[in-house]
Amino acid sequence: MGREERFPVWEATLGAGVAAAFAAGLVGVYLSMPDSDYSFLKLPRNLEELQILTGHLENYTSDYTLQVLVGYCAVYIFMQTFMIPGTIFMSLLAGALFGQLRGVALVVFAASAGASSCYFLSKMIGKPLVFSLWPDKLSFFQKQVAKRRQKLLNYMLFLRVTPTLPNTFINLASPIVDVPYHIFLLATLIGLIPAAYVTVRAGIALGELTSLSDLYDTQSIALLFLIGVVSVTPALLGKDEAQEKPSETAFQCAYHRSSEKLSPTRVSSTYFTYNFMHREDQEVSYGLNWAIAGRGVVVKDKVFHNLEPSELQKVGATYPGNVISGVPDVSKAQFAKLLKLVTFHLSSISSLYVQDGAIGSSTECDAKVRVISDNPSAAMLLSKVLWKIPDRAISHDTSPLTIYAASSISSNVKTVLGSGIQYTNGFAAADIECSSLILCGKAYADSTVVKDALTALTAPIFSARGGLPVPGWLLCFGGSTVLLFAPMEIISTDAIPSVSKLSPGQAAYHFLAGYHDGRFVSAYSRAPSPADPVALASSLFSHLKEDDLPAYLINAKRSGKYIEGKEFIKLFELALSGSLPDIKTEDIRVGELKGKYRSFLSSKFGKRLPEEFSF
User: Fold this and answer.
1) Is residue 452, in this structure, part of any structural domain at all?
2) Where are the alpha helices (DSSP H) in 149-217?
3) Do 162 and 69 belong together in one domain?
4) Judging by DSSP bridges, how do beta strands 551-554 and 499-502 pair with one another?
């Protein structure tokens, strides 16, 4: 059985326990020190108080080094965690007590530990709070961070090295805008060294320091900005390179549509191919509850995470019949209001069902998806359109998608979209900037609506991660894998052979358009997508040419009849074996079709078609 999780009441205790742990550490240090007057032990607020504190502590540092170190680290980390101003005095104190080398090491360690503690505290409490107050603005900043994911370390180093933003703000904001912790920590460890060196060096000559403004003269600030510019330069230069070479990674994020008509093959019966991720090594994960809270849904009682289909069926999941739903035109204001109603509804449900997965065949540029549902049937159907992902992969993703399935929400919710909206069984609404898809009523069972919405939502993520969305079916024949880029009815005409071997240029040409019963239809995608079709075709051309991959055109019509089922599979087997059927076609009909293709693609794409593309 999957994990049953209750509301994380221990998280509140954990937050209070952080402060208690620091307090206990300081009390322990105090009790281990010799009897004396410790009235001087207080956080310094100016240089005069710091000099007094330093004068007293110098007497203890040599004899009680360990206690002083523990007390220093506890105070520094506590101040960083709870954003108490005055850590610059602690950095000066380190230089005065421990010298330059040990002082820099101590400051960097304590500052990094305190920054990490603040990071996780903000992630646990601050992120859900900010999302509940400003979901649109938060989604905007999260997407800006996601766009710079590959060079994020360079940007973080720039912020850490230069006095552009306060370190406290960086510690607090980083988890809220989805900066990964490993990047945050590495940038902190490296980026704090220059500033720590300056303050520790000044602390060695603390008696000569008259003002904090003496710490950073014009030369020091200029040097810090120079180091920051050097750290961010690779990110600025790498941006153009990534835009110039989109084809190199285009196939790493291909969609894998399965075929409903090719049942004899080893093809998944759903959209993207999904394998359930199920973890039994942890009975309770409070992190999941807080992650869901970060998307606006508070767990009321229980949440079931990544149940197997059989387990979902035990709690009432069923496969519904045909459902008619729709995707209305929704403004940002309407979507924001609808999202609040849906998250409020889900927060009132006793048992929630959460399923995680991904869209796209490559872990390098796929789109992670989390389904939050009030219905096991919705969770079961939606989870089947996702790829399997490693444990906790979604928590490390900078811009995961969220699907809210509110099957039991009141039908009156549709009034948010306007009085003219009529959807008896349900409706879907998506917002690309919020990375969210809302499914009300039985809209979760409308596979076409779900597929089209996910296609539109994931395209910007793929583009930001250096890839291009390429729809297709994935078929397996023994040791061979076939990627079919269009439904079989896209190419159906008696004018060409059943199977034709294509050059890379011909494959890209036919990828742009199919010919079905006298009319041209899009072969690259049926769903709305911001991806440029010519760019997709160029990516296909480059991939086929560079990797020397064979390409075939499968015609699903012969002698006026459509080829389906086992007969269609035989065409694949013939193509893979190299024994293509010897079927003659009339040159006149081929010439006419060629002219129609040229006329159609010229009118649609003009002079943008590369010269290598041909019929």
Assistant:
1) yes
2) 152-161, 167-173, 181-204
3) yes
4) antiparallel
**DSSP bridge partners of 401:** 369
Lowest-pLDDT range of 39-48, 99-108, 387-396, 575-584: 575-584
Q: Does 307 share its domain with 168?
A: no
Strand ranges, E, within 399-518: 401-406, 426-431, 436-441, 473-477, 480-484, 499-502, 514-516
Closest CA to 496 of 516, 470, 477: 516
User: Which residue has better confidence, 410 or 354?
Assistant: 354
CA atoms within 13 A on the CB side of 478: 5
> Which residues 6+ apart lie within 8 Å of 77 measured at CB?
22, 110, 113, 114, 117
User: Do 455 and 489 have their domain in common?
Assistant: no
The two structure tokens encoding residue 311 = 């387990």
pLDDT in tens, 438-497: 888 888 888 778 877 887 787 777 767 666 566 666 666 556 666 666 555 556 566 677
Q: Are 69 and 218 found together in one domain?
A: yes
Most confident of 14-23, 241-250, 364-373: 364-373
Specify whether 345 is located in the same domain as 213.
no
Q: Structure tokens of 73? A: 């680290």
Q: How far is CA 244 from CA 254, 466, 468, 472, 543, in A?
A: 20, 10, 13, 25, 15
Number of Cα atoms under 13 Å in the Cβ half of residue 375: 23
* Alpha-carbon distance values, 548 to 255, 503, 504 (Å): 21, 10, 9
Domain count, the chain: 3
- Sheet hosting strand 426-431, strand order edge to edge: 3-5, 302-305, 351-359, 367-373, 401-406, 436-441, 426-431
Query: The domain that contains 340 carries what CATH number?
Result: 3.40.449.10
Q: Which 3 state secondary structure label does DSSP give 557?
A: strand
What range defines the domain where residue 459 resides?
286-464
Task: Based on the fold, state whether residues 43 and 165 are members of the same structural domain.
Answer: yes
